[in-house]
Design a protein that fits this description.
Layout (H helix, E strand, L loop, with lengths): L12 E10 L2 E11 L4 E5 L6 H9 L6 E6 L2 E3 L4 H6 L2 E4 L11 H5 L6 E2 L2 E2 L1 H14 L15 H14 L4 E5 L7 H16 L3 E5 L3 H7 L2 E6 L2 E7 L5 H9 L3 H5 L11 E10 L3 E9 L3 E5 L6 H8 L6 E6 L2 E3 L4 H6 L2 E4 L3 H5 L6 H6 L12 H14 L16 H13 L5 E5 L7 H16 L3 E5 L3 H7 L2 E6 L2 E6 L6 H10 L4
Parallel strand pairs: 3-10, 3-11, 6-9, 9-10, 15-20, 15-21, 18-19, 19-20
Antiparallel strand pairs: 1-2, 1-4, 4-5, 7-8, 11-12, 13-14, 13-16, 16-17, 21-22
Helix pairs in contact: 4-5, 15-16
Length: 503
């Protein structure tokens, strides 16, 4: 936890009465925000609470309908993102906006490359890039192509780019969502160096332990309003969650009583193997059962789900409701009533240029252009979107304008609208707030209660403990243990995840 800023210090950023509406919805009704130099100001709220809209207004991407923004005590009005950059604001989005085919140095100075007479000074650019990388603790070369770097190094590249414009206010949106523990600590060290220099960091995260470790003060948004403001040191996670979502917390963290479900084997994975990657055998999911897949990064969970959905070439011996299933393509899997909510919703689960209605009605993720007639599609999807509490303006609204949590719900709605009998979910709650997580798992349980078999891969063991009927542990591509979360401790399952041994 960073030190609390002295109250006598004037804020570097003040936002007052910020209001912003879109067709059919009011995203921000009246929001205030004060951020001080040298602090990590954590912005909390459910998906759809207004966090992203507020930050896009700060960056100059959106123009507020009402309200005042002051930086360093002077009122500012932005007509575009370039104005925000000139005012000393940099936003590092969860989906990093780096150019994968360019070098690190090219990405760092894109739009303001050192030049003389229109000619790029490559040696100067490389030298400056190396200096900025050193400031953020990066060990890789400025000549490295960004697309070849691991996500942790791409994150450092994005932070270094913010420094090239001498940003005094740096917004970080879920910067650690895809990072391991060591990489998270490295990002935290960079943040501490930035605040030691007097820069302000606005930190958006749904990980309460991170807020406690790195945050100075908190502003909570709910339904487009300020719900609470306080110092991290004066409160705890229960208070933050309560202000964010009210009574939804119990739905996510308290396991329902054990329930009886059918003995019918909906999904019988006799064997699924890809040489050098996975060799999974004898995993059964019964009709109405939710089975969790736990494991470390690289354990093979995503590969298994992709193979089951026909998206990866593999050797398969799989039965669905007692009959041998040929799952050699996505189309074949969909014909066997499989559905997949992928880890990367924007690249695999959605068509960002299409509307909410069309995305909810698309029959499969890949391999097919089959789309239900629009009227029938919307008649089927609309009640499901309502049940999932998806926030959108109108059916024709482009899905790219929705928050991450609402986009994820639309991906799930697509399969709930079909006769899905085997639902595969890969990290379905990554990047979602606790309220959106509760909504999602509630609908998954409803689908299971209706007789579907559910196989869900998650790095959040606590969520699997609370929502799964059984937990299968994968380690280095193999299934190594099978636990009942009602009688097995989280510590015992964690040991199996790390060691690869059942006990």
């Amino acid at each position: 936890m960073t030190a609390v800023i002295e109250e006598a210090t004037p804020p570097v950023l003040t936002m007052r009465g910020i209001r912003k509406g879109f067709p059919g919805t009011l995203a921000l009704k009246s929001v205030d925000l004060d951020v001080y130099p040298g602090e990590v100001h954590c912005l909390l709220g459910e998906n759809g609470a207004g966090k992203s809209t507020l930050m896009k207004i700060l960056a100059g991407s959106y123009t507020p309908d009402a309200g005042v923004i002051s930086i360093g005590g002077a009122e500012v009005k932005f007509s575009g993102p370039l104005d925000g950059i000139r005012a000393g604001i940099s936003v590092i989005y969860q989906e990093l906006d780096l150019f994968a085919d360019l070098t690190v140095a090219q990405n760092l100075f894109l739009g303001h490359t050192p030049s003389v007479g229109g000619l790029v000074k490559r040696s100067t650019r490389r030298r400056l890039a190396a200096d900025y990388l050193k400031r953020v603790g990066a060990k890789f070369s400025p000549d490295a192509v960004v697309g070849t770097l691991p996500l942790a190094d791409q994150q450092l590249t994005a932070i270094a780019r913010a420094l090239t414009t001498d940003a005094r206010i740096i917004v970080m949106d879920e910067p650690t969502a895809t990072l391991g523990e060591a990489d998270v600590e490295n990002v935290f060290n960079v943040i501490r160096r930035l605040t030691d220099e007097g820069r302000a960091v606005i930190y958006i995260s749904h990980r309460m332990d991170e807020i406690r470790d790195i945050g100075t003060r908190i502003t909570v948004l709910r339904d487009g309003y300020n719900a609470a403001k306080y110092a991290v040191a004066d409160t705890d996670a229960d208070r933050w969650i309560g202000d964010m979502i009210g009574d939804k917390k119990a739905e996510l963290t308290e396991h329902r009583d054990a329930r009886e479900f059918s003995d019918v084997e909906a999904l019988n994975i006799r064997s699924v193997s890809i040489e050098g990657l996975i060799d999974v055998r004898d995993v059964v999911v019964r009709k109405g059962e939710i089975v969790g897949l736990a494991g470390l990064g690289g354990a093979g969970r995503t590969t298994l789900l992709s193979a089951l959905f026909g998206a990866r070439k593999a050797k398969r011996d799989v039965q669905v409701f007692g009959k041998q299933a040929t799952l050699t393509s996505v189309r074949a899997a969909v014909n066997h009533h499989f559905g997949l909510v992928p880890e990367s919703r924007k690249t695999e689960g959605l068509f960002l240029g299409l509307s909410v209605a069309r995305n909810a009605g698309i029959a499969s993720l890949r391999g097919s252009s089959q789309v239900l007639p629009r009227e029938r599609s919307w008649a089927t999807s609309a009640p499901i979107l309502e049940r999932l509490s998806v926030k959108f303006g109108k059916p024709g609204q482009e899905i790219r304008l929705l928050s991450g949590g609402n986009q994820q719900k639309v991906v799930l709605a697509k399969w709930l609208a079909r006769d899905t009998r085997v639902l595969l979910l890969d990290e379905p709650t990554r990047g979602l707030d606790i309220g959106a997580k509760a909504d999602l798992y509630r609908q998954v349980r409803i689908l299971a209660d209706q007789g579907a078999a559910v196989l869900v891969a998650s790095s959040e063991l606590g969520e699997l403990m609370a929502n799964a009927d059984r937990i299968v542990v994968m380690h280095e591509g193999r299934n190594v243990a099978d636990f009942d979360p009602l009688v097995s401790s989280e510590a015992r399952i964690s040991h199996a995840i790390i060691s690869g041994k059942a006990s």
